[in-house]
Amino acid sequence: MATGSRRPTGRPRGFDPDEALERALQVFWERGYEGASLTDLTSAMGISTTSMYGTFGNKEALFRRALERYDEGPSAYLRQALDEPTALDVARAVLAGTIRTTTRPEQPHGCLGVQGALATSDSGSEVRDLLVGWRDEGYSRIRERFRRAVDDGDLPPETDPGLLARLVTAVAYGFAVQAASGVPAEELQEAADAALRRWPLC
């Protein structure tokens, strides 16, 4: 066959990997890892299974990419919250960011990092472990920020940074679960305000 008559190879024309990944994120966010079938994913992404595997790898690899996108996008409020001037401001920003991200009408409710591996079987244990690590990293960042607050005198010297971080993350993840159940943002914000009136909670 002459060189000039070769059939073009590579991705189909019009296939945008970034847009496809965003659509996959929405499916995983709404249905969780196991609840999102390959048919669901490729249909939402507008590509074939072959294209999905060729561009993103298998389903687990695609989920990892989607979680990275979630961390850099919807969940970026956590990194921003850590720059707040006081520990109380950090806690307020974490809870407000959680509420805002988990209740937006234009996107799935709840948190990908909490719901992504719910009811995951043994076959999805690596994804479950991935999300445990993702949540632990968020907890560790908040704990270290509270530790600095103790060192700086912003929190009482007897404050346990790890315990305080655990309380804040427990409240945040609890809000995410309630948001997924349909609890409106206004009610969650009222609960956040009530919790923080007892600052530093421990």
How does this structure look, described?
It is built from ten helices and no strands. Helix 1 (17-35) runs antiparallel to helix 2, helix 1 crosses helix 4 and helix 6 packs antiparallel against helix 10. With 202 residues, it is an all-alpha fold. It is 66% helix and 0% strand. Residues 1-13 have low confidence and may be disordered. InterPro entries: Homeodomain-like_sf (IPR009057), HTH_TetR (IPR001647), Tet_transcr_reg_TetR-rel_C_sf (IPR036271), TetR_C (IPR011075). Residues 14-74 form the HTH tetR-type domain. This is TetR/AcrR family transcriptional regulator.
Give structural attributes.
elongated, TetR/AcrR family transcriptional regulator, 202 residues, transcription, HTH_TetR, transcription regulation, mainly alpha, Homeodomain-like_sf
The portion of residues assigned to helices is 55-70%
Structural class: mainly alpha
Q: What is the β-strand count?
A: 0
Outline type:
elongated
SSE order, as H and E? HHHHHHHHHH
Specify the oligomeric state. single chain
Strand content: under 5%
Tell me, rounded to a whole number, the average pLDDT. 90
- Please give the largest β-sheet: none
Rg from alpha-carbon coordinates: 20 Å
**Number of helical segments?**
10
Distance between the termini: 76 Å
Domain HTH tetR-type: 14-74
Protein name: TetR/AcrR family transcriptional regulator
DNA-binding region: 37-56
Keywords: DNA-binding, Transcription, Transcription regulation
